[in-house]
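INFO batch 0412 | record 1 of 1 | parsing
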Amino acid sequence: MILDLVFGFLLVFAGRNFFWLCVGIVGFLTGMQCATALGFSTAWMELLTAVMLGCLGALLAICFEWFAVVFGVGFLGGGYVLINMFPSMAGQEQYAWPIFVVGGIVGLCLMVIIFDWTLILVSSLLGAMLIANAFHGPEGFRAFLFIGSALTGVLVQYLTFKDAANQEDSRRGK
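INFO prediction complete | emitting C-alpha cells
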C-alpha cells in the first residue's frame, strides 16, 4: 500500500522532528485497527475512523505537546509495535488487548524516562514496520527491509538530534 510507504518513510526519517505528525500517524494506524475491531465492515467507515483519530492525535500533539506525544507515541505506538511483532498471538482475541496494553505501558514508561531516544526508536520501528509490510515479497526480504529501515531511521534521527543539540550548545556559548 502506497500510504504505508509514505507514512513509513516519514516516521523513519522525521519521526522525532515532526512529533505531531508521528502522533497523527499513530492515531491513524490505531484508528484502522479499532475500526476493524469495532466491526466496521465497510472500507470507508474504517478510513473515516482512522482519519478522525489521526487528526485528533495531531491536534492534541500541537495543543498538549508533552502529554499527546507521551501517550500517543509511547502508549499507542508501543502497543502497535508489540502487537505487530507477535501477530500470531495477537490474532487470538484473548491475547490481543493484553499484548497491546503491555507494549503500551512499556512505551509509555520509556517515553517518560528517555523521551527523545524513545521517540526516535518507536518512530523508526513503526516506520520500518510500515515499509516492510508494504511489500509482499519473501519473508527474508521483508525482515532485511525492516532491520535496514529501522537502523537507518535511528541513525538519521540520531544525527539530526545530535546536530540540533550541538547548534543549541553553540548558541548558548558552551
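INFO post-check: The mean pLDDT is 80.
INFO record closed
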